[in-house]
Amino acid sequence: MATPLAFTASYAHSTAAVRAAFEDEQYWKDRIAEVGGPGARLDSFSYADGVLRVEMVHTIPAEELPSAITAVRPGDLLIPRTETYTGSEESGVFSAHVEGAPAEVRGTVTLTGDDTHSRGVVEGTVEVTIPLFGKKIEKAVAERLLELLTNEAEFTNTWIANR
């Protein structure tokens, strides 16, 4: 059974401002450079016909990983991640996996709010299919993801404020 992932980002900006940031390729380039880890990159960005799709790769250096992870997957982690938003862009889906390890993350993002504030609610799961150690690794991955999501929310608030 997968470990649940739940996070709520609070934005000091309207839903329209957050959506506008998401529609801007420069936002994604700046975000991955700021919080994606050493060597992180934006692989693709497309926004056409009401569909926004972003593919990126995050990195986590081995020295920042708990021993539960490095014991079964030594070295730096490369984490390809995709986010897709359709229609109003107030909801989307995401998925990620760890290269070279049986670890997957997937879920939804829902943006709600008004003209002055908004929230991004992330609901998903982390699944690691390694007998005996899977749950421990899932917990460590979920903790790292919550840190990343917090950093991304802070980045988004600052990026929009500086526009």
Outline the fold blueprint.
Elements: E1 3-11, H1 15-22, H2 25-35, E2 41-48, E3 51-60, H3 67-70, E4 77-86, E5 91-97, E6 103-113, E7 118-128, H4 134-161
Antiparallel strand pairs: 1-7, 2-3, 3-4, 4-5, 5-6, 6-7
Overview features:
163 residues; 7-stranded antiparallel β-sheet; alpha+beta; Alpha-D-Glucose-1,6-Bisphosphate, Chain A, domain 4
What does this structure look like?
This protein has 163 residues and is α+β, with helices and mostly antiparallel strands. The chain has a single domain, classed as START domain (Alpha-D-Glucose-1,6-Bisphosphate, Chain A, domain 4, 2-Layer Sandwich). 31% of the residues lie in helices and 40% in strands. It has helices at 15-22, 25-35, 67-70, 134-161; strands at 3-11, 41-48, 51-60, 77-86, 91-97, 103-113, 118-128. A seven-stranded antiparallel sheet has the order 1-7-6-5-4-3-2, with helices on one face. Helix 2 crosses helix 4 (134-161). The longest helix is centred in the C-terminal third of the chain and has 28 residues, at 134-161. 23% of the residues are buried. The model has no long low-confidence stretch (mean pLDDT 92).
Number of strands: 7
Q: Could you estimate the helical fraction of the residues in percent?
A: 25-40%
CATH architecture label name: 2-Layer Sandwich
Assembly classification:
single chain
CATH class: Alpha Beta
The CATH topology is what? Alpha-D-Glucose-1,6-Bisphosphate, Chain A, domain 4
Beginning-to-end CA distance, first to last residue: 43 Å
Q: Which regions have little confidence, pLDDT < 50, spanning 5+ residues?
A: none
Radius of gyration: 16 Å
Task: State which percent range the strand residues make up.
Answer: 35-45%
Mean pLDDT: 92
Largest sheet: 7 strands, antiparallel
What is the H/E order? EHHEEHEEEEH
Query: What is the count of helical runs?
Result: 4
Biggest sheet: strands side by side, in what order? Answer: 1-7-6-5-4-3-2
Query: What structural class should be given to the helix and strand makeup?
Result: alpha+beta
* CATH homologous superfamily designation: START domain
